[in-house]
């Protein structure tokens, strides 16, 4: 057995100090804190792949617009609760340009990040019909969304889509929907953590079942158009970002400034409610609020109660970024495609040293190179692999925390620096030697 880059004892003691019984269940923040402590004590650099935060400068278009807005004095004014009219217009136009869907500005509602968008959506969806008290996750997924439901005391069900791609998705979804308790279905596409992308035929299944069983689809587009296998960057030109919006009227699209525009710090996104859903009234909402439609309750009741709108200057930033993208003057995907390049190099290193990709294809096509990828190692559980890699100065989170039933880890490319490919190669060579397959 060759020595590991970080002394095993140091990692074991650090994990013990955090009182984590099962490292497979450690949260992102815990993994980050343990890696930081071990790095400081060992004096050996960690290759950090646990956090899913942007590692690039914020979009200059957004920063400029936001500074100008502040200089023009908007900070003293409460933003319109419905959203800045220019942002609503641009969000609607952006959806037409990049998804090829018609959605009126009225339904495009600024939120303090998609995080608030899902919170407000979960809450509103859960109040529409008292028989429908459960949210269904097409997992793997973003763990904080389940925490949101725990915080608000709502129920959820979940399944790992790994074994239910393509036609199999229909029967699986129906096994939940026929029970009549599901108010909404949520998934991200491209998916955090697996980077699978649901295909048109799968989105059609979801959309048609949503109409049939009268449930609302919450389509989380946090990684908008970041399936780099195709060039989705040309406004008003195919190919477009795939969306369930082509197959049902019961949907909310969650578009975030955080990843596509590296604008996470300003907490800005738009929740885009379909025209039909916006104007629909529900008995549960009428009973609770004395009136209103899905759209007006979402804005005037829920968002008003949560934060009374969204940071005024950030709305100017997002309006400018969306406008520049739709005008074809700003190719936002050019700025973020480096994540795909990093994933390509990192995957090659891991695969060469005996690892495999866990979620590796979309109905037969290899998954795209993007913000995340998933890896496993023969004979190791998620928890064992996550812990073992810490001895090699590599930090990543276990798939268990994402609702996946597969053994493996999520690796994020956002913090990788150029000199770390050689470092990873060296360390994984030792790993492979120490763990012959
Ligand atoms: C799938 C998914 N949804 C939502 C978010 C949060 O987005 P925002 O920063 O807009 O709140 C993230 C961030 O990591 C994510 O991965």
Automatic annotation (TrEMBL):
What family classification does the UniProt entry report for this protein? Belongs to the class-I pyridoxal-phosphate-dependent aminotransferase family.
So where does this one cross the membrane? none
Domain of life of the organism encoding this protein: Bacteria
Keywords, A to Z?
A: Aminotransferase, Pyridoxal phosphate, Transferase
What the entry lists under PANTHER family is as follows: ASPARTATE AMINOTRANSFERASE
Molecular-function GO terms, alphabetical: pyridoxal phosphate binding; transaminase activity
Q: Which InterPro entries match?
A: Aminotransferase_I/II_large, AspAT/PAT-like, PyrdxlP-dep_Trfase, PyrdxlP-dep_Trfase_major
Q: Please identify the protein, giving its name as recorded.
A: Aminotransferase class I/classII large domain-containing protein
Species name: Bacteroides oleiciplenus YIT 12058
Q: Which Gene3D superfamilies match?
A: 3.90.1150.100, Bacterial aspartate aminotransferase, helical domain, Type I PLP-dependent aspartate aminotransferase-like (Major domain)
Q: Name one Pfam family in it.
A: Aminotran_1_2
Q: Residue ranges of the Aminotransferase class I/classII large domain?
A: 59-356
Which co-factor is required?
A: pyridoxal 5'-phosphate
Q: Which GO terms describe its biological process?
A: amino acid metabolic process
